[in-house]
Automatic annotation (TrEMBL):
The keyword Glycoprotein does not apply. The keyword DNA-binding does not apply. SMART domains: MA (SM00283). This is Methyl-accepting chemotaxis protein. InterPro entries: MCPsignal_dom.
Length: 489
């Protein structure tokens, strides 16, 4: 049946709707018994409560958003200036790194050249060591040969002494022979004289002396031959004496020369010994130099490798600096865009505040004592609902996980709001309302958690259907309880 509306009730409804149209949500209780109130007025009352709660949340959020946007804008401008300075610094670092990389590359090339030079020097030093060792062997062999020559000279010198002594004996013998020759000549002369006297006496004897004359003539002939042979011997002795004198002088000179030669050979042997010692010392020094060259070459090669790695690292850093510079410049551009977006968001928050300011809400004095706590709860509950809507709209598993973490964060904040409300619920009515709100939120939380599990498992359609059916209904129920509780103040 169609229930006719009383004129007074119609006028009250008309007045309420007119106030709503003007943005005035300060509706006073009329004192009309509940039995006489129309269902339309009750619906309007619930609608007004929901709108008042929503507008208050929006007004509070817009105020906080504007404050945060202003603070964020100031920090963004500061960060933009800092990034600009950092970009300039990175640009300078990139240029310096590039220059350093080029210098290190030059150093690396010089180190490579030094390594090649060291290898060449090491090779030459090895050849010199081999040549010095060969020379040392030759010097040692020469020293041995000189020592052998010195020994031979000593033998020759000893033999020359013996020859000299024998020559002296020969001279004495020749002298004795000469004396004997003189004696023979003298005997020969006396024999001739005696033979002449014998011939004279034989001639005087006549026939009797004829035999004696033959003997005397034979003796004369023999004496003449002896004298003649003696003369030859004397000439031979003179020749032998002259040769002996010359040979003696030669032996004396040879002996003196042998002494000089021996002294010279001894000096040469000493010099050969010094040269040999010097060469041994030099070869030792060269071997030590070769070892040091090997160490230096190894160190140079290691240093070259380190310089090459440093050069490669600097080139990578330079390239990285270029990339960082490009990223920094890109971030600077992005930050400028973000700053513009922040400014635009700040302007829109002002527009939102301006829009909210057109509504007239009940004064805070007329509101519930826990109005602020309940509004924070409503704001946190709406954030959870927004997170769930965003999660179910996503199809990226990583993004879904991120939304799930945000859901857990806001759930922890909502639990803190429940604790604050529970601590201030002093009356039985407030505790009853809190119990009703907790149960309604628990029903929504079960659907919410199941939807989140479906999204993590990839059951997107199931989560979406639950969101727009049971999820929406249970969330609206919890929000209505919260707004009714605030209206009971």
């Amino acid at each position: 049946m169609i229930r006719l509306m009383r004129t007074s009730e119609y006028k009250r409804l008309e007045g309420d709707l007119a106030k709503m149209a003007e943005g005035d949500f300060c509706m006073q209780s009329t004192g009309v018994p509940i039995q006489e109130r129309s269902r339309i007025r009750s619906v309007i009352k619930r609608t007004v409560r929901s709108l008042v709660s929503l507008i208050r949340v929006v007004d509070r959020s817009s105020r906080e958003l504007h404050i945060k946007m202003e603070d964020t804008s100031a920090k963004s401008a500061m960060i933009s200036e800092q990034i600009e300075g950092v970009t300039g610094t990175i640009r300078e670092v990139a240029v310096s790194m590039q220059g350093a990389a080029e210098h290190v590359a030059d150093i690396s090339e010089e180190m490579n050249s030094s390594y090649r030079y060291l290898q060449e020097v090491k090779k030459k030093n090895g050849e010199l060591v081999a040549s010095s060792a060969s020379l040392s062997e030759e010097v040692s062999s020469g020293k041995k040969e000189i020592s052998a020559a010195m020994e031979q000279m000593r033998v020759i010198s000893g033999e020359s002494g013996q020859v000299h002594e024998r020559m002296n004996r020969l001279g004495e013998a020749i002298k004795k022979i000469a004396d004997m020759t003189l004696l023979i000549e003298e005997i020969s002369s006396q024999t001739q004289l005696l033979a002449l006297n014998a011939n004279i006496e034989a001639a005087r004897a006549g026939e009797h002396g004829r035999g004696f004359a033959v003997v005397a003539q034979e003796i004369t002939r023999l004496a003449a031959q002896t004298k003649q042979e003696t003369t030859g011997i004397r000439e031979s002795i003179r020749t032998v004496t002259r040769c002996s004198d010359v040979l003696g002088d030669s032996i004396i000179h040879m002996h003196a020369a042998l002494g000089t030669t021996e002294s010279t050979l001894k000096t040469a042997a000493d010099k050969y010994g010094k040269v040999e010692s010097f060469l041994v010392h030099i070869i030792g020094e060269m071997n030590e130099v070769d070892e040091r060259l090997e160490g230096i070459a190894s160190s140079t090669l290691s240093t070259t490798d380190s310089v090459n790695r440093t050069s490669a690292m600097l080139q990578q850093i330079a390239a990285g600096s270029e990339e960082v510079l490009a990223l920094a410049e890109l971030q600077q551009q992005n930050l400028l865009v973000i700053n513009d977006n922040i400014q635009e968001s700040a302007r829109r928050s002002l527009s939102l505040r301006s829009s909210v300011s057109q509504f007239r809400l009940p004064s805070r004095q007329e509101s519930h004592p826990m109005q602020e706590e309940l509004e924070r709860w409503v704001e946190c509950a709406m954030a959870i609902r927004a997170v769930m809507v965003s999660m179910i709209e996503s199809r990226d598993i990583e993004q879904i996980r991120e939304w799930h973490r945000k859901k857990q964060y806001y759930e922890a904040r909502l639990e803190t709001c429940f604790q604050d409300i529970r601590a201030k619920a002093a009356t039985n009515e407030d505790r009853h309302q809190l119990d009703q709100l907790s149960k309604a939120w628990l029903h929504f939380a079960e659907i919410k958690d199941r939807n989140a599990a479906w999204m993590l498992e990839g059951e997107y359609e199931s989560a979406k259907q639950a969101l727009i059916t049971k999820g929406r209904t249970n969330f609206k129920r919890a929000m209505d309880l919260a707004t009714e509780w605030m209206d009971r103040g």
